[in-house]
C-alpha cells in the first residue's frame, strides 16, 4: 500500500473517540462495554456507510474486510489481511503520553485455522471488562451493517466469521453504536472545518461558473436540453473542475451524488430525487449539486425563476425570509428540532400558514465525511442539541404549491422553490 498512516492524527482521533465513548456510554452509546466497528467488503455503491467514513476519519483510507475493536480500558485491536496490518504497523508502540489509548494490537488474518485464534483473542478482550451484575454484556456494532434475517453480511469471510462468533456467544448482546458515532463525528476539528470550507467554495463556484453560465446559454439560445443532460454536464465539471478553469487536482474531488435539475411543474425537493429525461422548461428551474473535496462533502441548491407569476416571486421571498429565521435558530445549546419549529412559527406569524403543509419532512442534515447523517436531521422531533464544531446543510423549500388560475396561464399548475447551502 503506497499510502502512509498519519500516526499522530490516528491516535488523536482514536483517543477522542474513546473519551466520547466513556463519557456518554450509558447514554447515546446505549450501555455498550466495547465497540466492534468492522468494515465489510469494498462497495463503491455505498460510499457513505458509517464504517467507510470512520476509516477515512481514523486512517485516511478505507480498509475493507477489517475488524476494529476498542475496549473500555483503551485497548485497540485490528484484525486484517497482511498488507493492511503492514500499513498500520507504523502506529504500534507509538501511543502518545497521556492518551487514554493503552496500545494497538495488530492481528493478521490466518486462513489456516479460519482465524479461530484471532477470534479467541478478540473475544477475550470483549469479555474482560464488559457488563456487570449478571446482565448480558453489550458490544456496540454498526447495526445497519450487521447481518439479520433480512440482510446478509456485507463482510468477507474474515468479518462474517467474527459476526458469527459474537452472535453465537453466550452472555453477549449487540447494541447500535451508530448514533454515538454520528454524534462524535459531527463535531469537526479545525482541519476538518477548513476542508469543509474548501468543499463549499468548490460547490458554489461550480454552481456559479458551471450551471448558471450554462443555463443562461440554454435559455438565451433557446436550446433543447434535457434535465439529465444538464445534470451530466454539471457532474462532469465536479469531477474535473478545470473545465471552468479551477485549479483543483482531479484526484481530490468527486460528486456527492448525481446533480438534480428539475423544471416544468414536476418537482421533488428531496435529496434522493432524480433528474428526468424531459426537456428543460423555461419557467421555474431548480438545481441541486454537491461536491466532495478530499472526502468532505458540501451541498448547494437554488431556484431560478424565469418570468415567474407574481405569486411565485412572493412565495420565493417568503422562503428567503424563512431561511434567515432558521439560520438564527441554529446556535449551540438549542435542539435540532427548533429549526423546524422556527420555520412553522414564521409561516404562521407571517399569515402564510397554508405553506406549512408544503414543507419537506426535514430542513437539512449534518454533513462532513458522511454526506447526510440520518441521526442528525433537522426534523420536527430531533431532540439532539447543536454543539460547537457541527456543520449542517440547511435545506429549506416548498413543493407542490398550487397556483391560482391567473398564474397558471403563465406557468405550470404547481410550483416549487428551494434553497440549500452548506
Describe this structure as you would to a colleague:
The chain has helices spanning 7-23, 50-58, 82-88, 116-128, 157-168, 178-186, 190-220, 227-239, 310-329, 337-349, 405-408, and strands at residues 34-36, 67-71, 75-80, 103-108, 137-141, 172-176, 253-255, 260-262, 284-289, 291-293, 296-297, 300-305, 362-366, 377-379, 392-402, 414-421. It is built from eleven helices and 16 strands. It is α+β, with helices and mostly antiparallel strands. The longest helix has 31 residues, at 190-220.
What's the overall average pLDDT, rounded? Answer: 93
> Count the strands?
16
Structural class assignment: alpha+beta
The gross shape turns out to be elongated
| Major β-sheet annotation | 7 strands, antiparallel
Task: Please give the radius of gyration in angstroms.
Answer: 24 Å
Amino acid at each position: 500500500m503506497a499510502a502512509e498512516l498519519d500516526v499522530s492524527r490516528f491516535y488523536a482521533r482514536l483517543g477522542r473517540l474513546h473519551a466520547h465513548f466513556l463519557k456518554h456510554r450509558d447514554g447515546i452509546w446505549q450501555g455498550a462495554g466495547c465497540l466492534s466497528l468492522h468494515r465489510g467488503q469494498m462497495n463503491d455503491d455505498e460510499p457513505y456507510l458509517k464504517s467507510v467514513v470512520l476509516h477515512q476519519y481514523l486512517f485516511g483510507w478505507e480498509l475493507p474486510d477489517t475488524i476494529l475493536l476498542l475496549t473500555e480500558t483503551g485497548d485497540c485491536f485490528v484484525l486484517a489481511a497482511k498488507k493492511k496490518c503492514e500499513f498500520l504497523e507504523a502506529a504500534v508502540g507509538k501511543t502518545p503520553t497521556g492518551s487514554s489509548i493503552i496500545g494497538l494490537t495488530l492481528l493478521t488474518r490466518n486462513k489456516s485455522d479460519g482465524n479461530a485464534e484471532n477470534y479467541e483473542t478478540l473475544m477475550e478482550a470483549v469479555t474482560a471488562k464488559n457488563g456487570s451484575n449478571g446482565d448480558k454484556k453489550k458490544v456496540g456494532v454498526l447495526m445497519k451493517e450487521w447481518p439479520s434475517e433480512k440482510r446478509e453480511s456485507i463482510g468477507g469471510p474474515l468479518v462474517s466469521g467474527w459476526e458469527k462468533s459474537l452472535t453465537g456467544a453466550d452472555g453477549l448482546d449487540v447494541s447500535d453504536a451508530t448514533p454515538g458515532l454520528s454524534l462524535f463525528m459531527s463535531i469537526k476539528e479545525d482541519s476538518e472545518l477548513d476542508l469543509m470550507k474548501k468543499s463549499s467554495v468548490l460547490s458554489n463556484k461550480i454552481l456559479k461558473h458551471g450551471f448558471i453560465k450554462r443555463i443562461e446559454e440554454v435559455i438565451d439560445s433557446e436550446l433543447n436540453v434535457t434535465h439529465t443532460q444538464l445534470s451530466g454536464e454539471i457532474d462532469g465539471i465536479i469531477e474535473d473542475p478545470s473545465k471552468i478553469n479551477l485549479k483543483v487536482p482531479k484526484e481530490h474531488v468527486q460528486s456527492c451524488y448525481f446533480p438534480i435539475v428539475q423544471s416544468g411543474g414536476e418537482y421533488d425537493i428531496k435529496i434522493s430525487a432524480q433528474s428526468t429525461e424531459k426537456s428543460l422548461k423555461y419557467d421555474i428551474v431548480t438545481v441541486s449539486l454537491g461536491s466532495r473535496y478530499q472526502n468532505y462533502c458540501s451541498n448547494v441548491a437554488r431556484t431560478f425563476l424565469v418570468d415567474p407569476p407574481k405569486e411565485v416571486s412572493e412565495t420565493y421571498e417568503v422562503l428567503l425570509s424563512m431561511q434567515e429565521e432558521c439560520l438564527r435558530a441554529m446556535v449551540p445549546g438549542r435542539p435540532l428540532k427548533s429549526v423546524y419549529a422556527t420555520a412553522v412559527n414564521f409561516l404562521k406569524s407571517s399569515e402564510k400558514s397554508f405553506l406549512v403543509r408544503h414543507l419537506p419532512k426535514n430542513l437539512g442534515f449534518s454533513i462532513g465525511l458522511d454526506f447526510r447523517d440520518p441521526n442528525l436531521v433537522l426534523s420536527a422531533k430531533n431532540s439532539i442539541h447543536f454543539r460547537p464544531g457541527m456543520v449542517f446543510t440547511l435545506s429549506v423549500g416548498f413543493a407542490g404549491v398550487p397556483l391560482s388560475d391567473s398564474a397558471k396561464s403563465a406557468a405550470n399548475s404547481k410550483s416549487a422553490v428551494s434553497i440549500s447551502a452548506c
